[in-house]
């Protein structure tokens, strides 16, 4: 084998120089554009919203400024124009202010009473134990029953010879009248509380289940007591569900018509003449459709107040802003 010196070796091919890239962009990166679907897919929902919401609202506004009653109903398009006369009558001599006060007081009291009941039931049904599924099902019974059924059962139970007075009489207590007189407001609050607390229970139970197991394990390792874990870990985690429950429950109680109507009938006693019952009485008992429409518009303004807090709570505006920046 002959040895060759490095000088005698053939020259190797030189590696080609790397191709230099073109000039880099120095400006800010363009945000990725979101692909938008065809807008015609929104047509069915838009038409439904127009027919169900927009058209009735416009008709209610028109009725609220006219003298529409049983005599002018046939010529409803030519009913006399009153302007703000119905609104002035509803505030000055009508039941509007009294009904608004009753509706607000009823909604606030019922919501305040349902919060601790629903929260306590959620804590009781959260941990694993034998028969937990049965307990959770029993807790939902007041919520799944139709409101008409709840009102009918409680109307029978609270009658003069009903089950409530029978039980109270067996221990020497005179039950009295629950559906007539000064007790009617508190009767409505208690019955609605019994029917509405499972809604708060459901939201709180969902919030408790969203807390990860590792959080509970970390708290147990740190040696925190049950009270410390509840106050500093669990309740702050339930702030969102509780706020949502308060707002939705308040809206529901403000618009609750079926329960007071079934319990007390119409016209209802003055102590429970809440706004939905007052609007119903003005429409279908005295046939003052224009006055009832003005009261309905006023109730819409009342409902918008907690609705604005609801929109703030779920942060719809923040979600839209984030979606626009994607």
Helix and strand topology:
Layout (H helix, E strand, L loop, with lengths): L42 H22 L20 H8 L3 H31 L5 H8 L1 H4 L2 H11 L5 H8 L13 H26 L3 H9 L4 H12 L1 H16 L3 H7 L10 H10 L4 H26 L1 H10 L1
Helix pairs in contact: 1-14, 2-14, 3-8, 3-11, 6-12, 8-11, 11-14, 13-14
What do these coordinates show?
The protein is mainly alpha-helical and 326 residues long. 64% of the residues lie in helices and 0% in strands. It contains 15 helices and no strands. The protein has helices at residues 43-64, 85-92, 96-126, 132-139, 141-144, 147-157, 163-170, 184-209, 213-221, 226-237, 239-254, 258-264, 275-284, 289-314, 316-325. Helix 1 (43-64) crosses helix 14. The longest helix has 31 residues, at 96-126. The chain is globular, with a radius of gyration of 33 Å. It starts with 42 loop residues before the first helix and ends with a helix. Residues 1-6, 12-22 and 316-326 have low confidence and may be disordered.
